[in-house]
Specification:
3 domains, 361 residues, rod-shaped, alpha+beta, Endonuclease, Chain A
C-alpha cells in the first residue's frame, strides 16, 4: 500500500517547466508551452518557490457583475450591458465550481465550457494530489515507526536480563561464604538422610509376633521363600502349615527349608515323623520344595532366617520351624527391607547347597 502511495505521489504531484522559466504549467497541452524550444522538465509542486507562477493561459480572467451567479469572458457581452452593480475580474479557477457561463456568449460556449471543465478536472486532480501526498507522508511515518519498533524489540528485555544477572553476581560476591562450612553442612545432611533411609527399612519382631509373620509371608510369597531353623517340629509344621505349604507348591513358588543344629557333631531335637512327611512332599513337588539338612561333615545350622522374594529378610533368635505358640522364650528378629541386602542373604544359602540357579533372583 505504501509503495502505491509513493508512486502515485511522484506521478500526480509534478508540474511542467520549460527550460529555466519561472512559469509552471499543469496541463501538458497548455498554449503557453506551444513555443517552448528548451527541454521540458517535470518537477514536484513542493519544490517550487514563491517566484514560480502559474501560466496565464491556465489562470484566465473572467467577468462577474456584482454577486451574479453568471460569469463572462467577453467584456462586451450583452449579459453585462445592464449591469449596475459594478463589473469585477476574477480567476476562472475561483468561480468555475460555483457560477455558470453566460448564455449570450454561446458562440464561444464550447470553448469556455471546455476551459471550465478542464479547470474542474485540474482542481480535482490537484485535490487528489494533496490527499495522496498526505496519505504518503502518513504511511512513511508509520513505516518508520514500525522499523523503530522492530529494531528495538529485543533490546529492552536483553538489557533487563543483563541488569538482573549483574545484580545477582554482585549479591553473590557480597555474600560469599566459607566453602568448608558448606561441605560440612552437605555431609551432615547426607549422613542424616542415610540414617533415615536405613531406619525406614528396618522393623523389629518380638516373641509371638513371629508366628503371624511366618504365616503371612508364606502366604504372600510369589517367587521364593527360604526358611532356616535349628530344628523342625510339629509345634510349627502341623496339618494347617502343611496345607499352606502345598498351596505354595501348586502356585510354583520355590520353597527351601534348612535345618540341622548340631551338638557334639550330632543333630537331635527335630521330629522325625515331620521330617519324613516333608521329604515325601518334596519328592512329589517336581523340585519346587526342597528340605536340606546341613551335612554331617560340616558344622550344624544355627541360623534363624526367613527370606522371600528379595523383599524382606527376618534374621534373629527365633527358630521358625520349631518354636511354636507355647514357647516362653524371649525372641527378637530384625526385618531388613533393603532388596540388595535381602538378595545377598538368599544367595548365601543357595550357594551353600549349590542351588544358585534353582530360583531366578
Amino acid at each position: 500500500m505504501i509503495l502505491i502511495y509513493i508512486v502515485s505521489f511522484f506521478i500526480q504531484s509534478n508540474v511542467i517547466i520549460c527550460g529555466n522559466s519561472n512559469i509552471y504549467h499543469i496541463d501538458s497541452n497548455c498554449e503557453g508551452l506551444s513555443n517552448c524550444k528548451s527541454k521540458l522538465s517535470f518537477v514536484s509542486i513542493a519544490s517550487l518557490s514563491q517566484s514560480n507562477k502559474l501560466c496565464g493561459y491556465e489562470n484566465e480572467k473572467v467577468l462577474i457583475c456584482g454577486n451574479s451567479g453568471v460569469f463572462h469572458k467577453d467584456e462586451n457581452c450583452k449579459g453585462l450591458s445592464n449591469c449596475k452593480s459594478g463589473i469585477k475580474k476574477v480567476n476562472l479557477r475561483s468561480v468555475v465550481n460555483s457560477k455558470k457561463y453566460c448564455g449570450w456568449e454561446s458562440g464561444e460556449s464550447n470553448n469556455i465550457s471546455k476551459v471550465a471543465e478542464d479547470t474542474k478536472v485540474n482542481m480535482a486532480s490537484k485535490e487528489d494530489n494533496y490527499s495522496d501526498s498526505l496519505m504518503f507522508f502518513i504511511g512513511l511515518i508509520l513505516l518508520g515507526f514500525l522499523i523503530y519498533l522492530a529494531a528495538n524489540y529485543k533490546k529492552t528485555p536483553l538489557k533487563n536480563e543483563e541488569n538482573y544477572l549483574e545484580d545477582r553476581l554482585s549479591k553473590l560476591e557480597q555474600n560469599r561464604f566459607d566453602e568448608s562450612k558448606v561441605n560440612e553442612f552437605i555431609n551432615a545432611k547426607i549422613k542424616e538422610l542415610e540414617k533415615r533411609k536405613f531406619s525406614s527399612k528396618i522393623q523389629i519382631l518380638k516373641n509371638t509376633e513371629h508366628i503371624s509373620y511366618l504365616e503371612s509371608k508364606l502366604t504372600e510369597a510369589k517367587g521364593y521363600i527360604i526358611i532356616t531353623s535349628g530344628w523342625i517340629t510339629k509345634s510349627v509344621v502341623d496339618d494347617r502349615f502343611v496345607e499352606l505349604l502345598k498351596r505354595k507348591i501348586q502356585q510354583n513358588v520355590k520353597v527351601l527349608f534348612v535345618y540341622g543344629y548340631k551338638f557334639n557333631s550330632k543333630h537331635n531335637g527335630s521330629d522325625d515323623i515331620v521330617i519324613k512327611r516333608l521329604k515325601e512332599i518334596s519328592i512329589k513337588s517336581n523340585g519346587c520344595f526342597l528340605i536340606k539338612e546341613i551335612p554331617s561333615n560340616k558344622q550344624g545350622n544355627h541360623s534363624k532366617c526367613l527370606i522371600f522374594d528379595n523383599k524382606e529378610a527376618a534374621i534373629g533368635s527365633y527358630n521358625w520351624l520349631s518354636t511354636g505358640k507355647k514357647s516362653y522364650n524371649v525372641d527378637k528378629s530384625v526385618i531388613i527391607k533393603d532388596s540388595l541386602e535381602v538378595k545377598k542373604e538368599a544367595i548365601h544359602f543357595l550357594e551353600y547347597f549349590g542351588l544358585k540357579h534353582w530360583v531366578n533372583l
